[in-house]
Amino acid sequence: MIGLKGLFKELGNRIVWLLCPMHCPYCDRLIGYHDTECGQCAQTLSGNAFERELPGGGSCRAPFEYKGGVREALHRFKFGGDLNAAKSFSKHLADVMKKHTSGFDAVTNVPLSIRSLKKRGYDQTEIIARRLSVLLDKPFTPALVKIKQNKVQHSLRASERERNPAGCYAPVDKDAIRGKRLLLIDDIATTGFTMAECRSVLLEAGAASVECAVVAFAVLEAPAKT
Ligand SMILES: [Zn+2]
Question: What is the value of pTM for the model shown?
Answer without folding.
Answer: 0.86
